[in-house]
Write a structure and sequence with these properties.
It is a single chain. Helix content is 33%, strand content 23%. It contains 13 helices and 19 strands. The longest helix has 20 residues, at 427-446. The mean pLDDT is 92.
Length: 466
């Protein structure tokens, strides 16, 4: 049984309702005994600058738990203890009421706040007397560039040690990402070909049909590259490209992931994308239909500043300069308002060196595919047995990965509440991710890469389909 309090800053936001509270509920509904021990006795204190009735807050927690079928004594206890405190966490006076509401000698503070506010709150925390076992957890983005990320890290480490700082990136808890570790290191079939001699190209793609969905306040200042590629997809790249750690733990695994990102650079070996020599391209959606929903042009969405030139679709080409991967392009892509979105990790295998004469057909490129939603594994192979005796035809072998009863944010909260940072982003890695994308951001700022357009509901600009 735990003796901890979880304070959620920014608790009135969508993330708390849609992801964070259901994640905690999933530990109750589907977790192992160790998960139940983490939340049994937990006190949750929601906080925001706006006023909220205590019964309304409790109803919000109840609704989140009901959505994942979390019930029983542990759930009832959390609901009985939970409270809401109106406070401004960037002011010292706001913390008196927050700490008075905390119960027990362990404190977890979850920042569902923008980076600029996080920095202000962290400065306040430096001068407060906090419980010895205090853990801080943050949502991305971690700063706005490498310098601001480094400054933020310095402030945070003056409050608590690095091992008690959780920089949350829920893509590290995606089933596909976790399955990548097993696929790579526990299958003799794949281990020998996981290198530049056998892999021609790696793509990490996460498109979505959703448009802006009222998020202009955050998204218009970020765009697809900062929102998705700089954080989520670079973390996935590190798992694909890493060397085998000696152990899957907070030290060895994170050391290995950090080493892969330290070796990552913008692609410099010639064209990767059609019709351009640039290692990146960007676009923004205009009016169109996604399924049965009509979306206006991005620039006409409420709260958007058209002069910012924010992209809603981004692709960048990178290289991991190690003996294993040098010369292989890693293409990262994410876009909004895509008609038939892809969300997958794709490794394209190089063609065989020799194909016997007398076979008909060429087959297609062989690929290893790990899909995010639903989590799935597909092998796209060349097989015989077509209409001709020696004909070649592409065949897919697919399997759905087992669905975890614990949500991605449940995995995140397991680490945060259990003080295990294995699946959180280390401080130096947060800085490395900004370093990797900075040349692309600089090129876009100079206007070296045009901002193209695509109709909502399409796959992107027509020229990209080549």
């Amino acid at each position: 049984m735990t003796n901890a309090t979880l304070i959620i800053l920014g608790a009135t936001g969508d993330l708390t309702k849609r992801l964070l509270l259901p994640g905690i509920g999933s530990l109750i509904a589907g977790g192992e005994q160790a998960d139940l021990d983490l939340v049994d006795g937990l006190t949750i204190v929601g906080s925001g600058r706006s006023e909220r009735d205590a019964d309304d807050w409790r109803a919000l927690v109840q609704e989140a738990f009901d959505g994942v079928k979390a019930s029983g004594g542990i759930a009832d206890g959390i609901l009985e203890r939970t409270s809401y405190v109106q406070a401004d966490p960037s002011e010292p006076d706001g913390w008196k009421a927050l700490l008075d509401a905390a119960d027990g000698d362990e404190l977890v503070v979850y920042f569902a706040l923008p980076p600029a506010v996080v920095a202000k709150v962290a400065e306040v925390l430096k001068d407060l007397e906090l419980p010895e076992r205090t853990v801080l957890a943050f949502e991305k983005p971690f700063g706005n560039d490498a310098d601001s990320a480094a400054d933020l890290n310095e402030v945070l480490r003056s409050v608590v040690p690095e091992e008690r700082i959780h920089r949350v990136d829920h893509f590290l808890a995606q089933r596909a990402t976790l399955a990548m570790l097993a696929l790579r290191f526990d299958n003799r079939l794949f281990d020998p070909i996981w290198n530049a001699d056998d892999i021609e190209r790696v793509e990490i793609v996460y498109d979505e049909q959703l448009g802006l969905e009222g998020r202009a306040g955050y998204y218009d200042g970020a765009g697809a590259l900062r929102d998705m590629l700089q954080s989520h997809l670079l973390q996935v790249l590190s798992v694909v490209a890493t060397e085998a750690p000696s152990a899957v733990d907070a030290v060895d695994l994170r050391d290995a992931l950090a080493a892969a990102l330290r070796a990552t650079r913008v692609w410099e070996h010639g064209p990767v994308f059609p019709n351009t020599d640039a290692p990146s391209r960007r676009a923004r959606y205009i009016a169109g239909d996604v399924g049965d929903k009509h979306l206006p042009s991005y620039v006409d969405e409420e709260g958007v500043d058209a002069d910012r030139g924010t992209e809603t679709l981004a692709e960048i080409a990178l290289e991991v300069r190690t003996a294993r991967w040098a010369g292989v392009p890693f293409v990262l892509r994410s876009g909004k308002a895509i008609g038939s979105p892809r969300d997958e990790i794709v490794l394209t295998v190089r063609p065989v060196r020799h194909r016997p004469a007398g076979q008909t057909g060429e087959g297609e490129a062989e690929r290893i595919v790990l899909g995010f939603k639903p989590p799935r594994l597909a092998l796209q192979l060349t097989a015989g047995g077509g209409s001709m005796p020696f004909g070649l035809e592409p065949e897919d072998v697919t399997a759905n990965l087992p669905k975890s009863p614990v949500t991605e944010y449940g995995e995140v909260m397991r680490g945060v509440l259990g003080d295990d940072p294995t699946l959180s982003v280390r401080g130096d890695v947060a800085e490395q991710c900004w370093r990797i994308v900075q040349p692309v951001l600089d090129a876009w700022e100079r206007g070296d890469v045009p901002l193209e357009e695509y109709p909502a509901g399409s796959q992107g600009p027509s020229a990209w389909s080549a």
